[in-house]
Amino acid sequence: MEHQSLTSLMIVVGIAFFIPIILQRFNLRFIPVVIAEIIAGLLIGKSGLNIIADDPWLELLSLLGFIFLMFISGLEIDFSVFKRKKDKDTNSPNPVVISLVVFLLIITISFALSYVLVMIDLIKDPFLMTLIISTISLGIVVPVIREKNMNEGLLGQIILLITVIADFSTMILLTIYAMFRDEEGVKVLLLLVLFMAVFLAYRIIKRYFKFELFDNLLRGTIQLGTRGVFALILLFVSLSETIGAENILGAFLAGMIISLLAPKKEFIHQLDSFGFGFLIPIFFVMVGVRLNIWELFVDKKILLLMPLLLLFMYLAKMIPALVLKKWYSWKEVLSIGILTTSKLSLVIAAAAIALELGVINDVLHGAIILVSILTCLISPITFTKLFPKTRSREKQMEITIIGANPATMLVARDKMEEKAIVRLYSTKSNQSKEKVSFPHIHVNDLTIEQLEEQNAFKADKIVIATGNEALNIELGYHAKEQGIKTIILRIESTPLQGELREEGFTIYSMLYSTRTLLKALIDNPGLVRLITSHNKTIKEITVNHTKYDQIPITDLPFLGESLILHIYRYGKVVIPHGSTALEFGDRILVSGTMDDLTNIKRKLT
Questions:
Q1: Half-sphere exposure (CA, 13 Å, Cβ side) for 544?
Q2: Residue 459, phi-psi category: left (phi > 0), alpha (psi -120 to 50), beta (remainder)
Q3: In what order do the strands lie in the sheet with 440-443?
Q4: 247-260: string of b/e by CB count within 10 Å (b at 16+)?
């Protein structure tokens, strides 16, 4: 029995290993890896060769994979989209309001369509089907939005918000539904205890997360951060089960807590590596193993239900998307409706819970999952083909510089030559007599209120370089609250520099910069000439286009005469060679002419 268990586990893990290689080798990138894993499970499971035996080890690992998947679903929620300000154009939609309206329409239409299925005697429970039709897969939508480079735009924000709201709301509603079906309805109020525990856990971790001792324990063989995550998951899974809720809700909420803490990207990568490298693939392969698709072709009701359910899933998203027709074209609106029909993780959760409660049978369970797999294959491909290609030119970078001095004025002039929109702010007493070719805005005092009036914090990047460190820090924190990602502070005090870097600020000082340049002139004069030469420049570019994920540098046709000097990946420096492959999220340091670098940035971001 033990030998059989190990053999089954070896087969499942082996399939999980070879699936990405096969997709890469035969250029099948349009198929999501998780869908390929389910299909592979179908081939070796009850629908195919039936070589995987029922095994408690596989069941346990599959359950842990499911729990970790729900944790990742919570972790994927980007709460910063709720903080982003409304577009400057007063005629554009408010992302939060319009997303809530669209989701409420999705729920309403989903219930109506579910009731139609009840009336024609294809299903028994309209409430469960409403949740199944309403769900949206965040794990499918986010990569597609990134692929189109839409995640920073207003339309991309709306799509992400609709997905996040649907993800969170359907998870809560699914838990409440299960509690009532399991005659635990009286315990629904105990969900407040669970949410209170989430709030307390978030506040406690946020307060003590940055202790120096704790930070040291995050590295090396201790890896306290990873241990803490698993302890947090199990804590909330246990708490959820104690109050009569589903364990997946606890895992989902644990993921939300970690997301709210905004951990470093390399830590997120560690969690993804463990989850998608081991546990989660086992779960998806086992989903396919358990399905018996041949049973679906025996029941005439199921044969009628599947196409109707697929149709209703698309109608429930495409009709509410018509709200956006006021601001966007027909192609864009229909594309949004199609993309947001993608569903997988929560549908599997809902179907599994319903099967456990006896609301549906094995055949209906299989039909629901099969239809969900179809949406994940159809929706991303159709969206990519249908969504209109953006013909607008690249958005100009907006840079705010607060504090006028010879250095900032020269930098402002240089950035203007690179076609950036630059605004320099200083007090009237510091008014320059020199004529400048960029907006030099004078205020009485460099206070938050006066700078807000002059739109100083409406920028992509901000440099705060006054001679007052306390003022620089105050303005820096305000800029951070406004959602500005790149904030550069002039700080001369060495003890403060380390603390502020930990907070995510970029720090420079006049003394440190001069010392660094002088040392570079002594040790590496060639490098300084490379940086300061007139026909060459160096730029850091982030790989934000999934098309170039895992593509070797030698296969990039647009590099021209440019040279990739370094790759910054998960906090480490990678020295590139011709065979080095780029990864999504890499920050590459490139040397070349301004025209070449602009073209590279346009391709990779």
A1: 15
A2: beta
A3: 440-443, 421-427, 398-402, 461-464, 486-490, 506-508
A4: bbbbbbbbbbbbbb
What is the 3-state secondary structure of 7-55? HHHHHHHHHHHHHHHHHHHCCCCCCCHHHHHHHHHHHHCCCCCCCCCCC
Paired with 588 in beta bridges are 541, 567
Residue 301 sits at the vertex; the CA angle it makes with 299 and 304, to the nearest 5 degrees, is 115
DSSP 161-214: HHHHHHHHHHHHHHHHHHHHHTT-GGGGGGHHHHHHHHHHHHHHHHHHTT-HHH
Q: How far is CA 597 from the centre of its chain?
A: 26
Task: Please give the full DSSP string across 387-422, using - where no structure is assigned.
Answer: SPPP-SPPPPPEEEEES--HHHHHHHHHHHHTT-EE
Alpha carbon distance 469, 452 (integer Å): 20
Rounded to the nearest angstrom, the gap between the alpha carbon of residue 565 and the centroid of all alpha carbons in its chain is 28
Q: What pLDDT does 131 receive?
A: 93
Q: Give the SS3 label for residue 581.
A: strand
**CB within 8 A of 587, min separation 6: which ones?**
540, 541, 542, 543, 567, 568, 569
* 338-391 pLDDT tens trace: 999 998 888 988 898 888 888 888 889 999 999 999 998 899 889 988 888 754
**Residue with structure tokens 């894993």?**
37
Q: Residue 203 has which token pair?
A: 């506040």
Sorted by sequence, the CB contacts under 8 Å of residue 196 that are 6+ apart come out as: none
| Burial category of 401 from C-beta neighbours within 10 Å (exposed 0-12, middle 13-18, buried 19 and up) | buried
Q: Are 81 and 160 spatial neighbours (Cβ–Cβ below 8 Å)?
A: yes
**What's the pLDDT at 235?**
92
Q: Taking Cα atoms as reference points, which of 276, 383, 313 lies closest to residue 136? A: 313
- Evaluate whether 69 touches 283 at the Cβ level (below 8 Å): yes
Is 85 a residue whose pLDDT tops 60? no
Does residue 150 register a pLDDT over 90?
Answer: no
- Of all helices (H) and strands (E), which one includes residue 398? strand 398-402
Q: Report pLDDT digits (tens) over 527-540.
A: 666 666 555 577 78
Task: Identify which has the larger pLDDT, 604 or 325.
Answer: 325
Rounded Cα–Cα distance for residues 240 and 234 (Å) = 10
> Residue written as tokens 């409420």?
104
The DSSP secondary-structure symbol of 538 reads: E
d(CA 35, CA 285): 9
The beta strands (E) that lie in 256-362 are given as none
The helix-helix angle for 300-321 and 362-386 (nearest 10°) equals: 40
- Which residue, 356, 317, 357, 346, is CA-closest to 333? 317
Measure the CA–CA gap between 500 and 477, rounded to whole angstroms.
10
Helix (H, G, I), strand (E, B) or coil at 258: helix
Global pTM reads: 0.73
pLDDT at position 391: 44
Distance of CA 329 to the CA centre of its chain: 26
- The answer for residues whose C-beta is within 8 angstroms of residue 66's C-beta and 6 or more apart is 248, 283, 348, 349, 352
